[in-house]
Each structure stands twice: as structure tokens, then as C-alpha cells.
Amino acid sequence: MSYQSTKAPPPFRRTPTKSPVRSSFESVSSNTPLDFSLPSYHSPSEKLQPPQKGSKSKRYVLVLATAALCCFMYILAMSAPEKTGSDALVALKNKVSQSTETLKQLIPAQPFVWSEPTPNFHSYAIAYLPLNKNSKCRRQSQITADFASLEASGRVEAIRLFSTDCKVIPAYLDYLKNRDSKKRSVDSALKLVLGIEPSALETTSDLDSEATSLELLTRSVDAQLMDIIDSLDESSSATEAFLRQLDLIVLGSEGLANQNYHPKELVEVLAHIRQRLDTLSSDIRIPVTTSEPLGIWDVLTPKERRDNVQEMLARQDGVHSVTPDDIEGPTGLFCDSVDVIGLSVSPFNNPTVDAAHAGAEVEESAYLASLLCNKPVLALEVGWPSAGSDNGNAKTGKDEQLQAVSSITAAVERISGKPLRSVLYQYFDDEWLSADEDFARHFGLKRLF
């Protein structure tokens, strides 16, 4: 689902909505519910081989009973005959949302400490889309200059890219070369969080019309990897130097939430891309993940572990926090297929959260994700709009945006107490979006850098 510089604005990510229901399926556009069951893992086929190169107890029982009923109803919805019409989508959204909401309600309130609104914030990374106001690609020299400006700001350590389009990899290599010419240490250069978007859409007429969806997805991934390889020098040293700048590969951006592919397909493609990366270098292991809302990580975790998370949260004494090691049960194939949990969080979508507590919303979601999957969490997409319509307590505005960003970048991991790594969304406003997209056009943070 790569964005094109000569066509309509790219649909590569879910734009936030104003729905009062926090749901992991806010942008579902199909009437066909996903089957979340995952088969036993098997390696990609030969044709996909890499190229040569009342009382508390009563209350807890009631909460657990409600959670069990939600899970049971969700399973029934997944196995029931297909329904048509918008009513089926609304029901699906609500049932998936309820499972996550039940977990959130069990988390004891914790005081959230955040800094006063200040432009001196620091975040792990910022998302970057190399598009102009008219949705066309920025010039390569402009992209290179943008990267240099982001480094000079000192506020981020990495850039998150959503694809390899717009010659963004050559621009990044130019940025590194310019730094080398000034004899700057490579250790201080911006790292890359590189997005690769799997797509099952045939882009050329010579493809096998009988190709499966999985085959098309892996082909699209291979094509984007070749874009990267073609941008590098022939020397192995150049390839290795570039790979060392890759902090993370993110396969897809809310593709499951948007029903772009099946969970079992995503698991297969994650294994496929890891195999491809291993062929590029045996010494450098680049972490791989995907980016999805908490609800997706929740419903794709085995029921046994979800139930145990709910039970442990209900039983906690308020003094000792529950940790992933306290949870019994397998984390499941989906969680096991990634190196780090890539979480997409939309605090503005929750009408009960104001800008000052945007970071608390991120903390809470990351805590639940870590309990479900027992892995580190990275908030891969989190921001706040500077203009547009309000959403309850979530108010838009430049002051509110700065307050939210300050709150988000002050968030900590509930268990370790260490700073929570987040990727701010995003550097530019999406001015190419239509006016009726409202606040979705105004997530840009360039003025703060």
C-alpha cells in the first residue's frame, strides 16, 4: 500500500476518527469479519526463498464474568455466518472494543507525572512523510535537508518512514554522506525506523493471475527491499553501514485494523522478511515488528492468557503491580512473531482524555500490551492535532498539542519506570487531505522543531 506521488493521496495509514467508542476497528471498511485464528507456523515455500543477494471480591467476580461474556460473544461473532450492512460492522467494533475496555477498567489509577508544556521535549523518533501540500513527493534535496534539520533539533534519535517511496532511502544516504563530509560521528546520526507496507494488489500485468494473497504480499515486500538494495553501493561495507543505521523494520501500519490482510498472512510475511534480512547480513539482526492498536494485540492473544491477565489485575492488592512474569499461559503466535510490540495509540480519539493526560493513555495501553505479549513496547504512532473539531475533553489547538506532546514524551513504562519510547506523529501536517478530514489534517509538529 505504497503511496504514489502522481495519484490521489495515499491511504497508507488510518486517520483518527471522532468516534466516542475507542475501538481497534475504527476504520473497518469491509463487511467480512476477520478470522483471527492462527495456524501452526510453517516456513515460506520454495518459490519465496531469498535471492542470491459490593465487596471487592464480588466486584471482581462481576468484572471477570463480564469479560468472559465479552470474549464468548466475540468468538460467536467470528464464527457466525457473514452478515451484511453497517449494523454488523458496528456490532463487531463494539465487541472487540469491550474486551480491551474490560482490561483498562481493572488497572488501578496511578498518578501521572508529566512536565509542564515545553518545546524542550525529547522523543525516541518522529514519523516522516515526504509529501508536499499537493500530495506529491518532496524533492530528494528537500528530504535530505529535513533529516539534517531534525538531527539539529536534538529532539529525536530516529525517523520513522512508512515506505521506501519518494526516493527517501537515497535521500537518507545523502544525509549520511553530507555528515561524513563534515566528519561528524555516525553515532549521532538519526537512526531509521523503516516501514514496509505489504500489499496484495497486483501492480503489473505480467504477474500470475492465480497468485495467492500471501504470494502477492511477499512479492510486494521483496520489491520494496529491492528498492533499498538498489539504492546502496555494490560494496558490502556500504550495505553493512546502512543496516547498522536501521533500528527497526515495521511491516505494515494498522493493516489488520483496516482488514488489508489476514493475521496468519502477516505472521508468514514477518517470517519472510526476517529471512530476507538475514541474507543481507549474518552479523546484524534487525528487529522486526508491525504497528497495530491495542485491541488487535488483545484479541490475537490466546484466550487463556487474556483471562489470566484479567484475573491477575483483579487480584492485585494495589501495592505490587502485576508484571508479565506473573501471567501464565502462552503469548501466542502473533506476539511471538515480532521482536517488540508496535503499538498505535490515539489519545485524541478518547473523549475522556484531555491533552495533559495523553501520556497517561499511552502508558496504560503500553502496560496492557506488555502484560499480554511479555515483550518490550514501542508506541509507534501517537500524536495530537493542533486544529479542527474537538472530541469531548480532547481539545484541539497549538497549546493543547504542545501540552499533549510534553505529556507523551514524559510517559514512563509502568513496570520498569524507564522512559517509554514513542514515535510522534508527525513532522508535517497532512495538508493534501480534503477539508472534510477535519482534525486529521493537523497533526504536524514541524513548528516545534
TrEMBL record:
Q: Which UniProt keywords apply?
A: Cell wall, Glycosidase, Hydrolase, Membrane, Secreted, Signal, Transmembrane, Transmembrane helix
Bias class Low complexity marks the residues at: 19-30
From the UniProt record, give one GO term of the biological process aspect: cell wall organization
Entries under InterPro entries matching the protein? Beta-glucan_modifiers, GH
Asked if Lipid metabolism is a keyword of the record, the answer is: no
One Gene Ontology cellular component annotation held by this UniProt entry: extracellular region
UniProt KW 4Fe-4S keyword? no
Q: Where are the transmembrane segments?
A: 60-80
GO terms for molecular function, please? Answer: glucan endo-1,3-beta-D-glucosidase activity
Q: Where is this region: Disordered?
A: 1-53
Source domain of life: Eukaryota
Subcellular location per the Swiss-Prot or TrEMBL entry: Secreted, Cell wall
Family, per entry = Belongs to the glycosyl hydrolase 17 family.
The record's PANTHER family line, in alphabetical order, gives: FAMILY 17 GLUCOSIDASE SCW11-RELATED (PTHR16631:SF24), GLUCAN 1,3-BETA-GLUCOSIDASE (PTHR16631)
This chain belongs to the protein called YALI0F01947p
Organism name: Yarrowia lipolytica (strain CLIB 122 / E 150)
Lineage of producing organism: Eukaryota, Fungi, Dikarya, Ascomycota, Saccharomycotina
